[in-house]
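Repro:
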Amino acid sequence: MKSLRPIKMLSFPVLCAQNFEENFKLVNLPMIEIKKPTSSKLLNFAFIGVASFVLEAGAAESSLGDLVESFWSTTDDSPIALSNQLKEASQDLEMLYQELRSGPEYSADIGKGQQESVRVDESGTRFPYVFLVPESYEPTKKYPLEFMLHGGVSRPEWEPGGGWWRRGFESLKREDRIVVVPASWDEAFWWHENQAENLPAILNVLKASYNIDENRVSLTGISDGGTGAYFFAFKQPTPWATFLPYIGHPGVLRNAQSGGGYRLYFENLMGRPLYIVNGENDRLYPAASVKPFIDILVQAEVEHIWRVIPDGGHNTEWLPDERVAIESFKQENPRDALPEKVLWVADRVDKFNRNSWVRIDELSQTPGLIEVTREDNVIAVTARGVSRFTLLLNPEEVDFSQPISVIVNGKTILSEQVNQSADTLLFWASKDKDRTMLFTAELNLEVVE
């Protein structure tokens, strides 16, 4: 495994959110080291048999297909009873995996056009959202999905039954995709932890009813929404294919008063392309104030496009001229759900500690970095400041009939055959709601000094 190449540490402004006082104090961004990921490779896999199933006494027998449909349509992330039925209904693990990967038969009798819903979290906070479904929606076709994050998050909470954020969706309606417009307000900025939980939860709710292409889910944001897109790119990229921050600024996230005071690690942007647009004369976030950030992207070889609109202000008047390039960018950059290389930096382990099939579970120093490379059945790990971590394995990426080796910082800590588990498969499938990112084994490992 090649050594990591250091990147020169640069600085860029700490900014406040829109409608807060402007603050352009310069701070250093912490940098560690990077390595660019590549594509994944499919391998053969073996499976373990399990017993057949009869439903509870007095109930009619359900087919495996019916149970799979119920599994994917539930919005609960731990449907224990249903998981037990699925395990018993499957002839073997291979059948269960293939059924889950194929997914349900989606219904054509579903809401189309402009729809409105609300998600309520455990604290009772209501998160409303509008979603736009093509009138020509066909349940047998996979549809790209785009989240559109609005600006002006310093407004008071949305008004039930009305609200400024519900207006003007005609221009967003498309027949080739589903578009989601969630709400943000002064108690739920896009970069607050409640929204970090909310947006993926809304995505999973929509996956339960609509045939969404999991590898073409994009996150677009305008102004404060653009800053929100940066937040998810830095902290929670797993469900998203691309990020499109327009007239926003990542420096807002560094501000303790309005942005949460997050530390931003550019290693976390690897593998998720960005399409960034800023106006030359933007009164809030002029392109010149964003350039130090762009310079780091260039040095780190983070895939991105940066458009500077000549004489452009804090608006999206340029959007019609950019639309063709933007659509090409989305089309050319589907998500690689199970990349061969994963790089992640975390400064906490209760949140923002997972990227795809790798999770950091315990830190020995802050921040901690982990770089994981999978080649056939050999997984090489570089861990710095990480004492425990988890690897999630997919049967199309490793060969479970052969031993799997895990080498951490040059030391082999595992070299043996790994058992697959229907429980693992169902647990992670219920959390991720992702037909293209299924795991049949979970390795919880410790770094050996």
